[in-house]
Design a protein that fits this description.
The chain is of the alpha/beta class. It has a domain at 10-226: Rossmann fold. The chain is 31% helix and 24% strand. It contains 22 helices and 27 strands. The strands form 6 sheets. The chain has an 8-stranded mixed beta sheet with strand order 6-7-8-3-9-10-12-11, with helices on both faces. Strands 21-22-23-18-24-25 form a 6-stranded mixed beta sheet, sandwiched between helices. It has a 4-stranded antiparallel beta sheet with strand order 2-1-4-5, covered by helices on one side. Strand 4 and strand 5 form a beta hairpin.
Length: 647
Amino acid sequence: MTPTSSNPVLSVRDLRVSFPSEAGRVDAVRGVSFDLEAGKTLGIVGESGSGKSVTSLAIMGLLDDNAKVTGSIVFDGQELLGKSDKQMSMIRGNGMTMVFQDPLTSLTPVFTIGDQLIEALTVHRSLSKKDAWDRSVELLSLVGIPEPEKRMKAFPHEFSGGMRQRVVIAIAMANNPKLIICDEPTTALDVTIQAQILDLIEKAQNETGAAVIMITHDMGVVARTADDVIVMYAGKPVEHAEARELFHRTRMPYSIGLLGAIPRIDKSEKEPLIPIKGNPPLLIGLPDACPFADRCPIAVSACREKEPELLPVSTGGGQSHTAACIRADEIEDGGLIQGAPVYPVPIIPESDLTRTPREERPVTLEVRNMTKTFPLMKGAVFKRKVGEVHAVKGISFDVREGETMAIVGESGSGKTTTLLQIMDFAKQTDGDIVIAGTSVGDIRSGREERTLRRDIQIVFQDPMGALDPRMTVADIIAEPMTAIGVSRADAHQRVQELMDLVGLNPAHLDRFPGAFSGGQRQRIGIARALSTNPKIVVLDEPVSALDVSIQAGVINLLDELKVKLGLSFLFVAHDLSVVRHIADRVAVMYLGEFVEHGDVDEVFDAPKHPYTQALLSAIPVPDPDIERTRQRVVFDAKTMTTQPLAS
């Protein structure tokens, strides 16, 4: 963006950051420039490894000593590069602060919340003990912590994830900073908690008049909060514009791909998502060429002759808009070039099964009156039962062949317990779990259990944690087949078929999981789950750890496998946009019970229960015009009603 006439709070010019490595110099940030005024929010988006977080850490002066940082970072009229750590410590926490992704690691576990708030105040200001205490209580009250005086004496582990993030924001607000940097502040939080945290950041900005840098991979969060947006790729900004301009007049193919890869809660059409094929380049010895060329659907030979500069583009919007693409002026609104989409829409084949009415399809999974309670114990040496926690309270549902059933709800609602009960073949006192026509209550031996296990498999949330790093891909995929007695030769042939089915190169079957990207590792997990030809696959947050561009490819793969193989999916997720796209039916879970259950479009378009209404209103839509005019509601658990969110 062109420099503004008023004095910006932060001015970054040609920021470059590199690190030494065994393979050579890693150019993590390769020329970032922007101005940020007081009271404004800059959104920085991009895939993992694009340089977003390194840029923020360079501004804060928190990089390792081996990092080489060049360029200029001027904050509040003073150059930050070249300052000692002691000098930066006087600025950090006072003039500028940072809200990190994981609030638990941001707080010291051995000090109380009050101690940490008071320290943030007194290290920069001369306050009496009483004044520091009173200000800390006021800050906790501002960020919505109930009984703030009592909670001052609590430790971080006694707070939930959302409450801990509120404390971190309170610490960030403590000294009325001029700049607040938020690095993925809502990742891994429930959508309702995410909405509350974004409200708090906005409140902190209004209270302090601070400028905000919002680093995120969620384009809906950017649509809600940002005034300007920088899209980063391979360590460089590739597009920079005012938020509405960037969303509606996108001119860089990478930005178009990011927007096309996002499932939207406000779209009922079941069109395939548009993944960005391939992976970002390694930032070592990059050639003088467009780093996105190998993944770009409209790349031409000139793209590989020289790396394009970030130059102004004409969009007719009357806004300052820059893009690093030699074909930017050929791209039209709506992600079109010469009247055709920049990214062709993938085709998901149909089958006779998709046209068969639900009532005529066989049931692959039936759950009747599932209940699960955990004993509440007390005592360090002699434990005694003092009560019970009812995690699941008599839920019932069925899943038909070729159908995706989703269970949604906040953390602690009972979703994962439900999955574990099913996967454990837990016998029910007054109910039943029936898998492919076989009741778990009829299992009498380990052999019968192994036979039934073939029909139901699971894909976990973390694709790296679910794969043994010491085993080759071939051994990982073949392991379930070996367990049920498939011969080595047949298993080897089946492994090759499965790798091809999930879009992996069968020639790579001797590689270890560490050699694959996150999206590829999740595909390995899916191939492993399919190895026994199951009738139903349980998916526990299978795409939450993936970048949106990779996520789109995995979601499309699941849609395709459902049609090709007639699979049934039981899908658990906290991202309701993904659920809207992939599910046929959905159940909304609250405190161990289904409060709403039915066809996904009916539930999402006309939610009846107040809890469902609050969940849906909290999900950000990647469109500034829609997102900033929506009426949000919050759920009141005491009255079981919704209330309009106070502005």
